[in-house]
Write a structure and sequence with these properties.
Blueprint (H helix, E strand, L loop, with lengths): L10 E8 L6 H8 L6 H11 L7 E9 L2 E7 L2 H8 L18 E2 L1 H11 L8 H15 L2 E2 L4 H10 L8
Parallel strand pairs: 4-5
Antiparallel strand pairs: 1-2, 2-3
Helix pairs in contact: 1-2, 3-4, 3-5, 4-5, 5-6
Length: 165
C-alpha cells in the first residue's frame, strides 16, 4: 500500500470538463480516491461550480486540503470568446458542429485578454491580445466586423493601439 497522505498538505488537480455537467466518476476516481474523497461528491461540486459555463469545455482546478475539495474554474480563451458572443445555450448531445459567426468589439477582446493575462505566456499585454484574436480565428467569429487576422495585422503594424492593462 502507498503511504498515507498528510492531511495538511495542499494538493491541486486540474480536470478538463464540460461546464454544468457532472463528469464521469470513473475518470475522477483514480485522481481523488487516494486523497480520501468521494468521486461522486467531487463531480457534483464541479457541476455546481461550473454552472455558468453550461455546455462549454473548461478546466477546473481542485484544491484539496484536509479531505475538503475547493473547485475553481479556469476558463480558456476560446470559452471566454464563445461566452462573450452571448449565444443561446445548446444541448451538447443533440446539436453538433455549431457555427460561431457572431461579432465582438475590441473592448470585449481587451477584457478577455485582461482575464487571460495571468495564464498567458506572452511578454506583453499586446501579445495576450494577439493570442485572444488567434482564438477568435479558431472559433470563427469576427472582430469589429472584420476578420481577426486583419485586426492582428493592424496591431502588429501599429495601426491599432492596445491599451496597457
Amino acid at each position: 500500500m502507498p503511504p498515507k497522505i498528510d492531511p495538511n498538505t495542499i494538493v491541486t488537480i486540474n480536470v478538463r470538463c464540460i461546464g454544468g455537467e457532472a463528469g464521469a466518476v470513473s475518470s475522477l476516481a483514480p485522481k481523488v480516491g487516494p486523497l480520501g474523497l468521494s468521486p461522486k461528491k467531487v463531480s457534483d461540486d464541479i457541476a455546481k461550480a461550473s454552472s455558468d459555463w453550461k455546455g462549454l469545455k473548461i478546466t477546473c482546478q481542485l484544491t484539496v486540503q484536509n479531505r475538503v475539495a475547493k473547485v475553481a474554474v479556469l476558463p480558456s480563451a476560446a470559452a471566454l470568446v464563445i461566452k462573450a458572443l452571448k449565444e443561446p445555450q445548446r444541448d451538447r448531445k443533440k446539436v453538433k458542429h455549431v457555427k460561431h459567426d457572431g461579432n465582438l468589439s475590441l473592448d470585449e477582446i481587451y477584457e478577455i485578454a485582461r482575464v487571460m493575462r495571468p495564464k498567458s505566456n506572452a511578454k506583453t499585454y499586446q501579445g495576450t491580445v494577439l493570442e485572444v484574436l488567434g482564438s477568435c480565428v479558431s472559433v470563427g467569429c469576427k472582430v469589429e466586423g472584420q476578420s481577426p487576422k486583419e485586426v492582428q495585422r493592424k496591431i502588429k503594424d501599429g495601426e491599432l493601439e492596445t491599451p496597457e492593462k
